[in-house]
């Protein structure tokens, strides 16, 4: 009965698999790509190289109903319309080729790149596919060079680099990648550089020390660009490097960090990281954590009825139970894993569940039954890959060894070694090491030291050239026994202590107690949840009965209330209509008043501008009259007085000119005003480069009532410095600063590096017209005037933005 129910669940899951699940449909394009990469990365690593990378991608896309092209078209597919994409997804390549013949420019490049991807990343590596890929990639390179478009040149070259790696011409591929990377660095194009480093780093082997360095830079670049999904993807790739090079603790830390990152961006497919955490925690004997994440993955899968990769999660939970003596529960979970794997997507995991089922049967004392199960499964489902063949031979040898049939055990151990010799990838390194270790221990146990030495030497020799950290209970036992045979008792003792430490952590009774407690907690939670649902159902039935009794009376009163409500609503509707008419009339009146006010305001602004214009013209007329008068004067004092008056009038004229030319007719931009005033004075005195000015003015807007006095003060102070600070045609500097001390308090400073003023000058000089004017104008703006000698003359005025009417002027 349970079996029928299980298949019904599977049938329902298949029926819903025809369209994107809600969890996938809600993802945007970057998250869909991240899902493909996370899933395919896990499938490739979990199968330990038994399927190639491209097959893993195809399987991931098929499982989640996503186009395969999404995994490879990131450089030219941003989610907008992409020419020929729909035809390629349908597999109608003939139509795509006809379309290519008619296409030019960037569209031709995009189409060529898609066709290049299609052939290059087909599962398997067929010569004709590679040749087709090269044809279209060359076309993309040629067209992008004709257009002289850097983006498309880079994208075409990156795909060409990938082609050379697929064609086993790594040196040529590396050359192309480094060329693109170098060019991106020169152009300081962070995004293009990140894409180039990503493409190159991904293709390098996990044992290549350059790979981690390149991917770390890629992660930093994507982080600075805010491309979080791409940062996380490359972070996963580095985690994979740590995993396969034996940096297990580093890999584990990154996996936990990865879960946090995925939650932050709302990415719910966290199970691939979780199941890897289970594998590591299980290997490190952290049973509560391993069981927590194994149960979490299974609970989510069962709750969502998404059995897409159910074989993986049932197998991992079975591993936890099997590892700590709960073999019957483990067998049931392995059985589920096998059934799902045979009827959904063949990820290769269910065949490992078969191996683990054999181990569980043997550990239960049913070794003969385990051998029969091996014969049945390998007859019906023969192992396909070299790794699976090695694993079948290994579990068969162990069963015969357990039964004491050493002849048959040796036969299958030798088969195990033959297959192991054909495996050289880092993904299979641990299994090969472990199985050769067990074979060496088998020969030590059966007292054949010569054969034992052969396999032990193989094990120890394999550890040296690999930058992989590897240790295990069996390896420590072999090291102990080998050192003992060789007479190295001191080292043997150290290895024996290590062996005991690992063995105790593995077989300690506390672990069984822990798993029992956790199982009880999990099952109790499930039971409590069921009881809660039953109670809720009972309460709902009671409420339904009460509702049925009240239904008639509620219906009658509802009808009465409905009639009353309709009457009230009609009354409100009539009132609202009358109010709306009144509001419309009022609104028209207000609009008319506003229009008149706007007209008056515009007229006022125009009049003010016209006044400023006329004032400016009148002041210019006065300047011209003074200039004409000066032509008839021979007295130097009179001429100087007229010139000074012209400068003062110009400082005021300049303000009025700025006001009528500006949109703002009430305030003056002091920076622009002071620069123009200084330039005027420089030209008036024909200073050339003898006296230079340094202006430092904050971006301030001052009222015209303050700007006019300040302009006259500036004119007087600068004129005095030009005339008296640099006698005998000395060179020098005049410094002008206007800065805000706080929000409404300002400081104007005019200083020079000239000879300074004589502090003992007579009262007549001190009370000259220029100084009197400066003092009077300072009072007008309620400013605090100070004057001092310090390597020249420093004149400073502190004043406020909003100043009161000067009491000295009230009587005027």
Automatic annotation (TrEMBL):
Residues 1-17 form the signal peptide. Pfam families: HATPase_c_2, HisKA_2, TPR_8. One of its GO terms (molecular function) is kinase activity. TPR repeats lie at residues 311-344. This is histidine kinase. InterPro entries: HATPase_dom, His_kinase_dom, Sig_transdc_His_kin_sub2_dim/P, TPR_rpt. Residues 610-807 form the Histidine kinase domain. Its EC number is 2.7.13.3. Keywords: ATP-binding, Kinase, Membrane, Nucleotide-binding, Phosphoprotein, Signal, TPR repeat, Transferase, Transmembrane, Transmembrane helix. It catalyses: ATP + protein L-histidine = ADP + protein N-phospho-L-histidine. The chain crosses the membrane at residues 550-570.
